Amino acid sequence: MKKLIGVLVVLGIFLGGSFAAYHYFYGGEAYYTKITTNGEMSATQADNGEKFTTYTYKQAAYNKDGEKKQVTLREEREHPLKMNAYLKLKVNPRKGVLSWEEIKASEVPKNAAEKIDN
């Protein structure tokens, strides 16, 4: 019985630590922004000769409470992001923007939408 309890305690500590580490490195808060520029384009070439185009967007984003944060979004793609598109960003305090998705204007929380459209 003592061995079983010991194994369960060790397993619980491991799972708790794994959960905390995952959220520390890959967790983030939702922020909302609107693409209003074509971004800054830069072209690079890999060692194998393959060319990459990166678009960098530096702009304000707002959380559901309307709190502002300056974010940098980098995208490797052939064309810039669509103008006037609303984006939901997952922002990690240590790593910056982890992911994004395009959403409808109606999906942006009211407090964030008021700040974005001003």
UniProtKB/TrEMBL annotation:
Family matches, as Gene3D superfamilies: 2.40.50.480
Note one Pfam family from the annotation: DUF1093
Give the domain of life: Bacteria
Q: What is this protein called?
A: YxeA family protein
